[in-house]
Amino acid sequence: MVVWLAVLQALTLALLLAVVHRPLGDYLARLYLSQKDLRVERGFYRLIGVDPRSSQTWQSYLRSVLAFSLVGVLSLYALQRAQAILPYSLGLPAVPAGLSFNTAASFVTNTNWQSYSPEVTLGYSIQILGLAVQNFVSAAVGIAVAIALVRGFAAHRTGTIGNFWVDLTRGILRLLLPLSIVAAIVLMVGGVIQNFNGFTDLTTLSGGTQTIPGGPVASQEAIKELGTNGGGFFNANSSHPFENPSAWTSLFQVFLMLVIPFSLPRTFGAIVGDRRQGYAILGAMAAIFAVSLTLLTVFESSGSGTAPQAAGGAMEGKETRFGIAGSALYATASTLSSTGAVNSMHDSFTALGGMMPMLNMMLGEVAPGGVGSGLYGMLILAVITVFIAGLLVGRTPEYLGKKIGPREIKLASLYILVTPSLVLAGTALSFAIPAVRTDVEATSIANPGLHGLSEVLYAFTSASNNNGSAFAGLTADTPWFNAALGVAMLLGRFLPIVFVLALAGALAGQVPVPETSGTLPTNRPQFVGLLIGVTIIITALTYFPVLALGPLAEGLQ
Amino acid sequence: MTTLTDSTDVNGRSGPERKRTAKPGAIGSRQLVAALPGALSKLDPRRMWRNPVMFIVEVGAALTTVLAVAEPFLGGPARSGGAAVPPSFTAGIAAWLWLTVVFANLAESVAEGRGKAQADSLRQTRTSTSAHRVTGYDPAVHGGAEGQDLVTLSSADLRVGDTVVVVAGELIPGDGDIVWGIATIDESAITGESAPVVRESGGDRSAVTGGTRVLSDRIVVRITSNPGETFVDRMIALVEGASRQKTPNETALGILLAGLSIVFLVVTLTLNPIAGYSAAAVSVPVLVALLVCLIPTTIGALLSAIGIAGMDRLVQRNVLAMSGRAVEAAGDVTILLLDKTGTITYGNRQAREFSPLAGVVESELVRAGALSSLSDPTPEGKSIVDLAATTGFRHQGSLEGEIVPFTAQTRMSGIDLADGSSIRKGAGSAVLAWVQETSELDPAVSRELDDAVARISRVGGTPLVVAAADGHGARRILGVVYLKDIVKEGIAERFAELRAMGIRTIMVTGDNPLTAKTIAAEAGVDDFLAEATPEQKLALIRREQEGGNLVAMTGDGTNDAPALAQADVGVAMNTGTSAAKEAGNMVDLDSDPTKLIDIVRIGKQLLITRGALTTFSIANDLAKYFAIIPAMFAGVFPGLAVLNVMQLHSPASAIMSAIIFNAVIIIVLIPLALRGVAYRPLAASQILSRNLLVYGLGGVIAPFIGIKLVDLVVALAPGF
User: What are the boundaries of the signal sequence (chain B) (predicted)?
Assistant: First the structure.
């Protein structure tokens, strides 16, 4: 039964994506290459003093990204600290400094890790002016950086990689806004709430009182999935019936998470002038996704023990309306796409099943990854793959005609160094500093021992990879986790962006080498297989020792 | 020279294989022992630092050695991962780590050792000799400098611009160009080729090398390099690896390996704090073992040996690369510019037929052709005289007149006779222009000439147009000599191979487009440049480079120098001028233009070897994980034994076996690193499939078997 459900929904999803990715991918290519601006865009460019036709060097592009993001962090921090005086704040007080920093870092980096319980911490003005705005712009920044890298591959010794302000504006106005409006309407039809009712007090059947929060959920929900953000309106995220009422809305949300990341490879292929290059990237992403989904579904379906047997399956932490298949799909999509939304509690998965979302993130979020970040992450791995494979055929390695030399490899190596270092150092420091360890053991970890380690490891994996998914069970609103995870999110987002843009600049300055039969073909299944192999060996194997200390040890007991 | 069609004229003389060839890749135990002192001296951390991967291993070795010494005083080895450790474990790990480092250095030393032997034999030619310097010399005035005062001085005191006289039996004191005279010279000290070669002033064969011996005649040489900077000096530095700089690909690979090493360093350093919470801390020797097994030691150990051996393979083929960068660029070449004569066709074209124009008596054409060729030493010139002889032409007496030599610009040669008449022969367009300088050409003659030229060209022959001017300066065209060009056997197959490798060949020739097209089709080249001048050749290279191509070419003449310098791989012939040798980034001592194809192959092989061992090294990690991870925490998590797929004897033996395998595999792979991975000219995707299967899949499987075998032995050791 689970099997058929799982296959059916996977096929439905694959069909939807297969239909939509072509027009959307082509539309994105046209959108980012177009020389025409909308009237409202021209007004905006005049306002901020940008010439939309001028193309930036990578340094200039990077400065724009960083400056824009810094303003985002500061204003989001200020908004939270000022909540007491904001309208529509539902009477909630100012957010504490540590939590404000963590949340600001979280939403600007497209992580959307939530150390807090939204419905009792943030009022409508912050939800809308702060979080929703960042949901849009952080997603647009990610796509912009990916497009800049693709332009670097396509450039013919121009040395420039496009204009950040144009990319940002178009991404928001002509991609994310229209799609989220459509998505929000669909979600409302599916029963997601959209109101400004505040808290409603009810008397329950048993005579007790209950306070039920309302809010503009559907509009938030749309961009939460579409921009691979994942920050829920409610603490329970998409397992809450107001956010995700039914099995089909759940499937629709999965579709929203995946639709842009899975369309971007086609955009990539269109811009570099060889669609098959895009399909090779897409193939690697899809293959990893399929294997990961299968494994999680298998692990969860074969959960043994008294409770699963009594419940007819490992249903702890899962909503009955989604079941094992729906939960496994949602968890896989969410952790492989950098969304981090949940419709079930990963902490309650079987030990090996709980390892899968973590492993998904450890892959570096490239299958398909976050909006933009997934594509650039995969392209970095493709550069490494091309380097090794290129040597194997006896040529200086080249990808799409661009030589992969010392500079390119240095940047790619630095990129792959960042996340594992942040994850492992963060986890290790949590236990190595005596004062911190005492606090972590006493306050944060709900299940001491192997599972507790998994909770901490999961938190740092999620933050450093900008996923935002929580294992649950970990109390993260402590000074240590607010600060450490905040730093991990910022470094995990912007260091890779620095290296990606520098790589884009290095590539843009090159004259492409013409393709011959001596060139390593990067658009065939052979290369796709190799890319998958490198992804697994370079990223996932790094975590093998630490996984052995947590989920592996627990699962193999 | 009367070669009328080519800007260069190199007769494809492929000398016998070099005498000093060692069997590639084969290393004997004697070689290993000889390399041992060098390997030990490389243990100096200041030198190891340049190889980050092996430096990490050395630091680990030092650390475990200190622990092994201290342990007995601290109550035996610390428990690791909640399990006891055998007493000899730390010392064993330390010993094998040192061996790992020594094996890596040994690989480099063996590779260098081969170069050293070659350098020593070269050094013998560099012994100081005496030179006879002549001052105030002018070749036009003084000729052979017979009457001049000669100052005898040591060759070490010669400077650029000095002029010296060398006579038969003497060693040439330094690199230079012959400014007067012709001599046979024994260059076997440099080339290994025992047959003497002819060097003469003025042409493209004027360069002489210091340390070679003049066998006959007297020459005057202008010195072109200072002592210590000569060709032989540079050769010695190159084969010894003293001037070895890392190539771009080697640097890039080094960065990737360093990056991976840092990742694994982070993995190791963060392990104990984490293990301290959920399991039990791992002891330092085990941590070091984990780190060494994970970092790419195999390729790290062999990387520099691969580079040195690659240069060495070129030297064994008698090619000297001035930089490793050039060798690597050879692997990347996408366009080969090949001179037709000597490379694609045999150099000696034979005259087959005299075709006089209407109104010209055949004997007149025969006489003009023969007279203008009498003083022409090239095979073409000789064959014209021979053909003339078969028609009954005999030249009596001596020839009075001034010879007009062939140049790449005029593309014709001839003779101005004492009686005021002159003869020219050469490419149609050039001779036509010469005739038109003085007189209008009758359209009928022009048409007839075009027909004759086209007829010969269509069959791939070289039409040599002959014209004459009488004593009054009236010039007219006599006819055409048909020179037959013979395409080398098997050359078409070689070009097909190159095409499979993704390399386009362009034939460069001074021939007219029709001839060029026919020969190009017969030889199977992809494209041709006809009626080529050095400027056009340079322009062609620039154009291809603009399009992102990497161009390789050979050349020997001074007018090739700009193109040689512009090309990404410029192979100068050893017979060529010093200007050409200076401009190119490789010198072929055999002066064999087809060698270019071998050079490309060696360049590719170098890169493939690096890629293969990198892939192997990284693929090895999988098996090592399965050996070490379950062993590390076996004491706390017995459940992890499921991962012990190799069924290794005990945790200690598992870790020990992984470390031993890691060290031994270096020694096992040294021959491969020195010999290079086999390369067959196939399309890139086929090569990739094959190499992935061997080194990727092999790299995954081999350590599973290897570690298991080592473990069977280690299990016998007491305590394990």
Answer: none
The minimal CB distance from B271 to the residues A521, A526, A545 is found for A545
B191 is in an annotated binding site: no
Q: What are phi and psi of B429, to 5 degrees?
A: -65, -35
What average pLDDT is seen over chain B? 84
Decide which of B331 and A303 is more confident: B331
Q: Quickly state the pLDDT bin for A252 (edges 50, 70, 90).
A: very high
**Residue of A431, A537, A552 lying closest to B274 (CB–CB):** A431
- Pair type for strands B182-186 and B197-200: antiparallel
The per-residue pLDDT for B234 is: 75
Taking contacts as CB-CB distances below 8 angstroms, the residues of chain A near B685 are 520-521, 524, 526
| CATH of the domain spanning B346-484, picked from 3.40.1110.10, 3.40.50.150, 3.40.30.10, 3.20.20.140 | 3.40.1110.10
pLDDT at A271: 96
Q: Which of A396, A420, A556 sits opposite B249 (nearest CB)?
A: A396
What is the interface pTM, i.e. ipTM, of the complex? Answer: 0.93
| Residue in B with minimal Cα distance to A522 | B685
Interface test with A, best of B250, B253, B266, B278 (most A CBs within 10 A): B278
Contact A413 B259 (CB under 8 A): yes
Q: What is the pTM of this model?
A: 0.86
The per-residue pLDDT for B453 is: 86
* Better pLDDT: A163 or B453: A163
- pLDDT at residue number B413: 84
Residue B322 is assigned to a ligand binding site: no
pLDDT of residue B324: 74
Q: Which residues contact B345 (CB under 8 A, 6 or more apart)?
A: B485, B486, B487, B488, B519, B523
Tokens of residue A495, six digits? 């260091």
Statement: B334-343+487-588 belongs to CATH 3.10.20.80? no
- A-B CB pairs within 8 A amount to 214
Torsional sign, CA A538, B63, A430, A99: negative
* Lookup: tokens for B698: 């092999």
- Where in chain B do CATH 3.40.50.1000 domains reside? 334-343+487-588
Is pLDDT of A75 > 60?
Answer: yes
Q: CB contact, 8 Å: B694 with chain A?
A: no
Contacts of B251 in chain A (CB under 8 A): 406
Q: Residues A244-254, buried b or exposed e (16+ Cβ, 10 A)? A: bbebebbbbbb
| Three-class SS state of B309 | helix
CB contact under 8 A, A431 and B273: yes
Q: Which residues of B touch A511 (CB under 8 A)?
A: 546-548
Asked whether the CA dihedral A34, A38, A44, A48 is positive or negative, the reply is: positive
Alpha helices by DSSP H, B567-650 = 578-583, 595-632
Q: Do A514 and B688 touch (CB under 8 A)?
A: no
CA-nearest residue of chain B to A512? B548
| Three-state secondary structure call for residue A467 | coil
pLDDT of B141 higher than 80: no
With beta carbons under 8 A apart, name residues in chain A contacting B267. Answer: 420, 424, 542, 545-546
Does residue A303 register a pLDDT over 80?
Answer: no
Pick among 3.40.50.11500, 3.30.70.660, 2.70.150.10, 3.40.50.150: CATH of B129-172+174-223: 2.70.150.10
Q: Measuring CA to CA, which residue among B657, B664, B659 is closest to residue B708?
A: B657
Selected residue with higher pLDDT from A319 and A279: A279
Distance from CA of B468 to the nearest CA of A (A): 49
Active site residues of B: 339
* pLDDT tens digits, one per residue of A410-457: 999 999 999 999 999 999 999 999 999 999 988 888 888 888 898 899
